[in-house]
Amino acid sequence: MKILIVCSQPKDPRKRPGAYDREYDCAWAERFIQHLSIHRDLCTGCGDRCIHCRDWRVDDHSANIIAVLRQPSILSELLEVPVAALLDPLPPHDILIAIQIHEEILIELPALAAKVGCQAIIAPVEAPDWVSRWAKNQLLQKAKQAGIEAVVPKPFCDLRKGAGPVIDQFIDYFRIGYPQFEIETLDGKISKATARICAPCGNSHYVAHNLQGYPVDENLSNEVSHYWHAFPCTASMKQDSELGDTILHRGGQIHMETVRKAVEEKM
After folding, report:
1. What's the distance, Cα to Cα, between the start and end of the chain in Å?
2. Boundary (domain end) residue, out of 130, 148, 174
3. What's the rounded Cα separation, in Å, for the pair 21 and 158?
4. What is the pLDDT of residue 234?
5. Of 161, 168, 258, 267, whose Cβ has the fewest other Cβ atoms within 10 Å?
6. For 225-242, b where at least 16 C-beta lie within 10 A, e where not — what string?
7. How far apart are the C-alpha atoms of 5 and 8, rounded to whole Å?
8. What kind and span of H or E run contains 128?
């Protein structure tokens, strides 16, 4: 399964957006790429105590990333020819993941991607201004017209099965999306914790590693929250009108919900 990632170029500190421009950031995209590639510098939460647990918790999928396609980090709010802003043509791929790109480019992608064999588009939302409701509806509509699956999870760790068989296969193959934990207990404590499905940023593996040895009691959710923050989650703290909360808080709730469910299955 070949992934094409579409994101922006790194920010250039020497350049500033004009009055009618918007600036984009590839930091979250780089984090996702590092997780898929088991990059050693992605997780530093344990500091000097690090035992490089990701070496056996995470598979190296770097070979599955067929290309990283970039747009400029600063673009005009309105584009005359949106696809002209992409710096390279789309190569053949199976899944396209569009991370914080210009909305006018985003809604042009289904038609372009379908021509080179794309079967599904995932456009995660980690901040309220990444994908507007209008752009989301346009993307889903145009993807349907192009005959490909599309989903806009908010946040990325809320990516769940049910949007289509290709996206379901993506979740199973890369083991990323809505977290799924497997927990074993001994004498009232967590003896082993494994993230069978991990948040796309890699946070769930860090949470699982650090929960081992903790008592299964009413304070467990606080421990999940502590380590989830320590990784840390990089979703926005701005209020999101669709969620009625911040996207960052939703990410934390998801992890607490899934750990609690895994524990309840063992009780």
Report:
1. 37
2. 174
3. 30
4. 85
5. 267
6. bebbeebebebbeeebee
7. 10
8. none
For residue 138, which phi and psi values (nearest 5 degrees)? -65, -45
36-197-48 Cα angle (round to 5)? 60
Residue 236 · residue 248 · CB < 8 Å? yes
Tokens 């390279």, residue? 88
Residues 199, 136 within the same domain: no
Q: How far apart are CA 10 and CA 112, in angstroms?
A: 24
Q: Which amino acid is at 55?
A: D
What span, in angstroms and rounded, lies between the C-alpha atoms of 192 and 214?
10
Range(s) of the domain holding residue 169: 3-174
State both tokens at 263: 């524990």
Euclidean distance between CA atoms 178 and 156, whole angstroms:
8
Mark whether 255 and 135 lie in a shared domain: no
Count of domains in the chain? 2
Neighbouring residues of 1: CB distance < 8 A, sequence distance ≥ 6: 64, 94, 95, 169, 170, 173, 174
pLDDT confidence of residue 267: 66
Residues 121 and 185 grouped into a single domain: no
Q: Are 180 and 172 in contact (CB under 8 A)?
A: no
Token pair 């009413």 is found at 218
Domain end, chosen from 174, 194, 213, is at: 174
Residue 85 confidence (pLDDT): 87
Chunked mean pLDDT (size 10), the chain, 267 residues: 96 88 94 90 77 81 96 93 87 97 96 96 97 96 97 97 96 96 91 94 92 89 88 90 94 93 82
